[in-house]
């Protein structure tokens, strides 16, 4: 049985540990989350949530046996991906105790994303919390950690400049789209792929006035889930070539090491658009759009490096703020762990107070109202059992020095 500071366990895969295709296989949309959590509950894991985004798929759980919890989660994720647990294991990370606390706080504070400081990550954790709570899989221990995580995220945002200045990609993309097309509300946008960076730019465009967006992806279920969250439409991945001409802004974030949009595709689309310009953002790593598109008249192609140059100053501001934010996360992680450890002493303290109250009542009855006698009897009664135990331990020798040190600290005997 683990102590209270070791109960939090996080098992998952993110953009650093697993490929996009593997994360696609692991992805759990909102509709699949309740049965997934129910499966964990049936397996014996009562407190858990599933955080499933384009960037990461993680299970956050509370359990008295961290090793067992990690095994159950690994098996559940392997089943989700259609893999053997041993095959999936090298691509998963398992964090417990202090490491899990720091990771959870860092993720919730938007410090573990491709674009640091994006508030939508905090919203994703809150949505995962709501799903887990509605599914009955978020108990008191996990809920207390999540409340602490949300408080840390709020503190990071209010005490640092993490949210100030242009986002290195999204803000630059919005500015260029406006320079090229004017009012975003009149534009149609297409997001090809479901990577986090593409989703981020799409969300920023929508927040800035864009109202019409479609999503296409190799995996139809991912396209449908992302289109639903963006309030957009689904375009079949095989229909991108023929439908490309109808969009003013095209975002790609597939990262499949193959070209998703060629120069011929873009040139043909521009002919149908009668040379009305198109703004293309290649957010894939590696890139999704053939570089030769830059030579197509009317096509304005920007990749991640181009957009980062546009907003270099804002990025520098965020990186400086991130250092201060990480200091806040570390301090709050230490405070959370200390508080959780302190709570472990509460049952013993309650029992000790109850024993002392019992001794007091008995002593008052025996003393017959004599305060001095009552005090003498009470001290003798309270110290009798501890004194006998201390003598026994001292006679054996091995543990006495540690016991004496504890007593001097506990009762401040050296003051």
* CATH hierarchy: architecture of the largest domain: 2-Layer Sandwich
In N-to-C order, the SSE pattern is EHHEEHHEHHHHEHEHEHEHEEHHHHH
User: What is the SS-derived class?
Assistant: alpha/beta
What is the overall number of helices?
A: 17
List low-pLDDT spans. none
Mean pLDDT: 87
Residue fraction in strands: 5-15%
Any idea how many domains?
Answer: 3
Number of strands: 10
Features:
single chain; 415 residues; alpha/beta; Beta Polymerase, domain 2; Rossmann fold; 3 domains
Q: What does this molecule look like?
A:
The chain has 415 residues and is of the alpha/beta class. The chain folds into 3 domains: 188 residues, 2-Layer Sandwich (Beta Polymerase, domain 2); 141 residues, NAD(P)-binding Rossmann-like Domain (Rossmann fold); 57 residues, no CATH class. The protein is built from 17 helices and 10 strands. It has a 6-stranded parallel sheet, with helices on both faces. Strands 2-3-1-4 form a 4-stranded antiparallel sheet, sandwiched between helices. Strand 6, helix 10 and strand 7 form a beta-alpha-beta unit. Helix 8 packs across helix 9 and helix 15 packs across helix 16. The two termini are 37 Å apart. The model has no long low-confidence stretch (mean pLDDT 87).
């Amino acid at each position: 049985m683990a102590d209270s500071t070791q109960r939090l366990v996080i098992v998952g895969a993110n953009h650093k540990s697993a490929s996009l295709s593997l994360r696609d296989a692991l992805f759990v949309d909102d509709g699949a989350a309740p049965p997934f959590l129910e499966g964990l509950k049936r397996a014996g894991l009562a407190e858990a949530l599933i955080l499933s985004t384009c960037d990461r798929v993680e299970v956050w759980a509370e359990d008295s046996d961290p090793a067992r919890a990690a095994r159950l989660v690994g098996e559940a994720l392997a089943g989700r991906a259609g893999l053997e647990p041993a095959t999936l294991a090298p691509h998963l990370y398992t964090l417990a105790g202090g490491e899990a606390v720091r990771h959870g706080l860092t993720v919730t504070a938007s410090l573990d994303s491709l674009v640091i400081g994006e508030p939508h990550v905090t919203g994703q954790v809150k949505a995962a919390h709501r799903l887990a709570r509605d599914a009955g899989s978020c108990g008191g221990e996990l809920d207390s950690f999540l409340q602490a995580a949300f408080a840390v995220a709020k503190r990071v945002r209010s005490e640092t400049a993490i949210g100030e200045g242009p986002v290195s990609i999204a803000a630059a993309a919005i500015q260029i789209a406006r320079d090229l097309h004017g009012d975003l509300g009149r534009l149609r946008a297409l997001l090809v792929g479901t990577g986090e960076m593409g989703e981020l730019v799409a969300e920023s465009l929508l927040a800035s006035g864009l109202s019409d967006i479609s999503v296409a992806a190799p995996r139809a279920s991912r396209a449908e889930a992302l289109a639903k969250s963006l309030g957009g439409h689904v375009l079949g991945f095989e229909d991108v070539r023929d439908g490309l001409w109808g969009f003013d802004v095209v975002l790609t974030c597939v990262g499949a090491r193959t070209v998703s949009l060629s120069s011929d595709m873009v040139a043909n689309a521009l002919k149908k658009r009668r040379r009305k310009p198109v703004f293309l953002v290649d957010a894939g790593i590696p890139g999704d759009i053939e570089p030769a598109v830059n030579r197509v008249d009317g096509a304005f192609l920007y990749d991640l490096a181009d957009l980062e140059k546009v907003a270099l100053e804002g990025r520098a501001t965020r990186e400086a703020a991130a250092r201060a934010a990480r200091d806040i996360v570390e301090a709050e992680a230490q405070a959370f762990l200390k508080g959780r450890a302190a709570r472990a002493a509460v049952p013993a303290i309650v029992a000790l107070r109850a024993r002392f109250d019992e001794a007091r009542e008995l002593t008052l009855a025996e003393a017959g109202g004599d305060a001095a006698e009552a005090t003498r009897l009470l001290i003798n009664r309270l110290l009798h059992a501890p004194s006998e135990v201390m003598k026994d331990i001292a006679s054996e020798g091995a543990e006495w020095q540690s016991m004496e040190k504890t007593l001097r600290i506990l009762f401040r005997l050296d003051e």
